[in-house]
Amino acid sequence: MASEAHPKARPSQTRLSSPAIGTKRAAGGDKREAILDAALELFVERGFFGTAVPEIADRAGVGAGTIYRYFESKEALVNAIYRQQKLHFANVVLDGFPRAANTRELFRQLWMRMAKFATENTNAFIFLELHHHQRYLDDESRAVENRMLDLFTGVVTQAQARGELKLGPPRLLMGLVMGAFVGVTRSCVEIDQALDSADWKLAEQCIWEAVRS
Amino acid sequence: MASEAHPKARPSQTRLSSPAIGTKRAAGGDKREAILDAALELFVERGFFGTAVPEIADRAGVGAGTIYRYFESKEALVNAIYRQQKLHFANVVLDGFPRAANTRELFRQLWMRMAKFATENTNAFIFLELHHHQRYLDDESRAVENRMLDLFTGVVTQAQARGELKLGPPRLLMGLVMGAFVGVTRSCVEIDQALDSADWKLAEQCIWEAVRS
DNA sequence: GTCTTGGGAATGAATGTTCATTCCGTGAAA
DNA sequence: TTTCACGGAATGAACATTCATTCCCAAGAC
Predict the structure, then answer these.
(1) CATH number of the domain that A135 lies in?
(2) Cβ atoms of A123 and A44 closer than 8 Å
(3) The CATH number of the domain where A63 resides is what?
(4) Which of A79, A188, B71, B100 meets the CB 3.0–4.6 Å disulfide criterion with B77?
């Protein structure tokens, strides 16, 4: 019931990156990728329940039945996307994160790495935001989420102990920062125009001043 | 197609407030209210497409057909809720708003009024957040949204001109503030515990420091 | 007072549609 | 020839909406 790889499928590997630069008919016939991409787009446009499986098939350029060769169910599909993108996000943010740096630099890195992900994968970011905490996410997907949350909570608590962040419930500060980030991202999605580097830096400076002690 | 009041219905009035303190069987038999309340709850819990009309009827304690005496369709129902709550929100935030006050006070008022609404109508606030910009909202509903947006844009631009807010795209600053507010609200919904007044004040101070020049 | 009756409110089973999922014929590869 | 990925029509379940019927009650008749 919580299987990531469908028994019938024979995926080359569970890859986490790959914007698929291949030719029209990619090597090995990457239907799986096409389905994941199409479903991501549609779930962002119409939501999970608002999207019909045959629509996904159409956009992916495959038959409706083919989806079930790769995913056990619509629910398994949305969970696969969620985990894939959440892990991708975690990679972009955490890989080689300079833990030893001072809090100011830590914060800048965090913000700019999130900005990098949100700029290069806007749809994926909105997808994660939209499906956060939904009923149809399984335990595995929630676990991925919680791991990141715990990590950040630790960082915030330590920085507070050192007097570098404002005191207050860590959840509140984190909610504030993440919320602001989402708000900024959406404000540019709504006018369909990517933020430039200067805007991201401005926003970063703003939110740093919000949380610094 | 964009009718607010359904022809067959005979609503006493289009009321915007009224938490219904009446007896069990309210005066006039307020089925309409019961339907609106039940639908609001369910749309927050499961989303628009995730909620079946008969479920709404069950929770409202009416027959499925009754819903169609008051609303033309499921879509008309969600639009009615959206407008009702958006206008309620606008009332709470804007009624007697001290426009002449200085920017710091203006901001404090804005934040605390939003906090008041979000505390007293948490479900409604989440509903508005969730259904913001959805496909099934009609032009009228969008107009309500845009009116508020324009108003705030004006306030921000003026405050920037007076050198009291950081310079930058008004949309970005507003997205940041609203996003942070939503983030703070959610952070407490997720642990199912209302924020106390001190927490709201802390958050307010944080975000003021984020946007002040 | 009791009884009757007209009409609108309310109901929930019935209807037609849409959807997730399955099934089977086809064609390419080995 | 066998195998197997594939497509898309077929299937059955769930859905939004409708409608024939019931229920309620106010107002008249007695």
Answers:
(1) 1.10.357.10
(2) yes
(3) 1.10.10.60
(4) B71
Smallest CA–CA separation between B27 and chain A, in Å?
37
- Closest CB to A210 among B172, B188, B207: B207
> pTM surpassing 0.70?
yes
Q: Which residue of B has its CA nearest to A202?
A: B168
- Kindly determine whether residue B166 and residue A202, on different chains, have CB atoms separated by under 8 Å: yes
A-chain CB neighbours of B166 within 8 Å are 202, 206
Sign of CA dihedral A59, A61, A67, A71: negative
Domain enclosing residue B188, as ranges: 76-211
Q: How many domains does chain A have?
A: 2
Tell me the sheet residues that pair with A11. none
d(CA A160, CA A152): 12
Cα distances (angstroms) measured from residue B197 to each of B19, B116, B194: 22, 10, 10
Which residues in chain A have Cβ-Cβ distances shorter than 8 Å to B179?
179-184, 186-187
Q: How far is B196 from chain A (nearest CA, A)?
A: 11
Chain A residues touching B47 at Cβ < 8 A: 47-49
- How far off is chain A from B130, nearest CA to CA, in Å? 9
Q: Which of A133, A115, A132, A122 is nearest to A180 (CA)?
A: A115
Q: Tell me: do A58 and A117 sit in the same domain.
A: no
Residue B9 reports pLDDT greater than 60: no
Give the residue from B89, B90, B74 showing the smallest Cα distance to B137. B74
**For the segment B140-151, what is each residue's pLDDT rounded down to a tens digit?**
999 988 988 998
